[in-house]
Design goal:
single chain, 347 residues, alpha/beta, Nitrilase/N-carbamoyl-D-aminoacid amidohydrolase, 6-stranded mixed beta sheet, 9 helices, 14 strands, globular, binds ligand LQR7VSFR, hydrolase, Nit1/2_C-N_Hydrolase, EC 3.5.1.3, C-N_Hydrolase
Amino acid sequence: MQFSQLKFVSVLLTRKALGTKQFPSLISRQLHGFYGGKVVGSNNFQLKQSKIGRLSRSIMDSASDSAPKGNGFRLGLVQMNVTEFKNFNLTTANTLIKEAVQGGANIVALPECFNSPYGIQHFKDFAEHIPNGVSSKLMSALAADYKVYIIAGSIPERGDDGRLYNTSVTFSPTGELLGKHRKVHLFDIDVPGKIKFQESEVLEGGDNLTIIETEWCKIGVGICYDIRFPEMAQIYRQKGCDLLVYPGAFNMTTGPAHWQLLQQARAVDNQVYVATISPARNEKAGYVAWGHSMVVNPWGTIVVEAPEEQKVVFADIDLDYIKQVRSQIPVSTQKRTDLYQLATLKD
Ligand SMILES: NC(=O)CC(=O)C(=O)O
């Protein structure tokens, strides 16, 4: 009964997001079964939030046994199927965030473009205002009711300036908006015979770096292509981040070549944990994501790696281990800043 209430909220929110657009019949039938055949009413968002609250407390009680021991926290990576139907994507995110919470996650992270297919032809139709759009509202409500941080992957954002951005929002365990990161480096590449992608045809790049402060550590956020720019990661480290989180959607050309390599490079160079969160692989999609969401530790070792299909995976972030690696190989205190310098021109 209680679980169906949570799902009920998602249907309401996602239907609102799509206005009059209806579920395709197959998905509609699946959701009808999924939601126990309930008729969707028109109760308001506030009322639904309090219902999620009662539910989430009971979930948190049962999850607390599996909380990480020692000095750190548990990160849950939601590698999810993303379809051409926003309402279905939000329902999937809702279900898998619950699974992550049940697995003891203190911080839950979603993939790049979790509410929209990754493709420049889709961004305009799926774009939302942040934080007043339905995806942001759902993430805020779930964060507050489960009392977890949610790093909400990314969504296409319609800015106040009317332009489109690829944007990640993070909510605190009270549902407060903690940070908004607009993908800084747009994915414009051309690998002949393999893949050409030009985000800049429809998107604007962001012009800020984004650090999230939690009770455990600072987290630097980047989106996908941002991981290829080591300066950004270095600045996050200089500013005290212990974990870098990159929602990302590498593809079948760059994924096998660079996904793991880049993550290990950023982790070892900066002696931080690095997490990447991909959509699940769908061979029939216009853009086939690589999958393999992953966490790498400051030594460069893979802590956890998802397969290709939809899955929630977990990693315990051990803050003492970071200190240990940094004291064993103290590169941060051995920098030759008399020879070189790294600085951000904007704070
Ligand atoms: N999709 C991206 O932004 C980046 C990517 O796929 C790559 O760098 O490769």
